[in-house]
Amino acid sequence: MADRLYLGDYTYSSWSMRGWLLLARFDLPFAVTRISFDDGAVSDQLPDIAPGRTVPCLVTDDGAVIWDSLAIAEELASRHPDAGHWPADPVARAMARSMAAEMHSSFGGLRDQCPMNLQTAYTDFPASDATLADVARIDRLWTLARDRFGADGPWLFGAYGAVDAFFAPVAARIAGYDLPVSADARAYVDAHLNDFGFRRWRAMGVARRDHLARYDGPWSQRAWPGPARLAEQAIDSGRPENAACPYSGAPVTHLLETGGRVFGFCNAFCRDKTVADPEAWPAFKALL
């Protein structure tokens, strides 16, 4: 039995995004159970996995229950030491863990004023002094990590690590609310926006079409600042090139069209997450 991750909404749940990236971005096998924020208290929806009471919550194949994202990162690193959650160099590892812990416990101004919303971006957002102070601190941390340890790749410590999964929702906030950062920090934000793990997570939110009005802001909106979507569209009829869904292997029932070609999927969600960002899904790209 694979590990099972309980998570919330793809568009709004920054904590769930962290938990999912800690597994998906490191190629670890797991299954997903979604918890709706509109179906009552999260703790009431998790009666069978006590003492878990929030999302993300990971139940491992041996029955361990881990209900905190930082604990999930550390436990996965212990169970999968070759996955690469933390830098191998002890000095870099100490800094990465400290940065993840600070992100986990701090930046209340940014969290309160800028809830994550992966479907909406704003113009002329009036950032508070507390938010700007948080962003300045984040910018400083990112710059230090990149200057000291980031020479071998676009991430904070070169290769993608757990600390990058923790800062992915922060990057989404900076991008969505167009918060002021240095050029180097902006490049790091762009690395997240273009990362296929980030893009798959966001595409699943688009496919679910969930909308929680309480997260809407009153400011002018603009297009999401990530990569432009290709011209795919869902269609009702046609002759698909593939007989089996590229994700599940099940017979196709739902169709999309791109460039005059038709492809099939086993359900609406598989189709719609592909329509949302087709280049983010290796199994679909293989069909093309």
Automatic annotation (TrEMBL):
<protein>
    <submittedName>
        <fullName>Glutathione S-transferase</fullName>
    </submittedName>
</protein>
<dbReference type="GO" id="GO:0006749">
    <property type="term" value="P:glutathione metabolic process"/>
</dbReference>
<dbReference type="InterPro" id="IPR036282">
    <property type="entry name" value="Glutathione-S-Trfase_C_sf"/>
</dbReference>
<dbReference type="GO" id="GO:0016034">
    <property type="term" value="F:maleylacetoacetate isomerase activity"/>
</dbReference>
<keyword id="KW-0808">Transferase</keyword>
<dbReference type="Pfam" id="PF13409">
    <property type="entry name" value="GST_N_2"/>
</dbReference>
<dbReference type="InterPro" id="IPR036249">
    <property type="entry name" value="Thioredoxin-like_sf"/>
</dbReference>
<dbReference type="GO" id="GO:0004364">
    <property type="term" value="F:glutathione transferase activity"/>
</dbReference>
<dbReference type="GO" id="GO:0006559">
    <property type="term" value="P:L-phenylalanine catabolic process"/>
</dbReference>
<feature type="domain" description="GST N-terminal">
    <location>
        <begin position="3"/>
        <end position="84"/>
    </location>
</feature>
<dbReference type="InterPro" id="IPR004045">
    <property type="entry name" value="Glutathione_S-Trfase_N"/>
</dbReference>
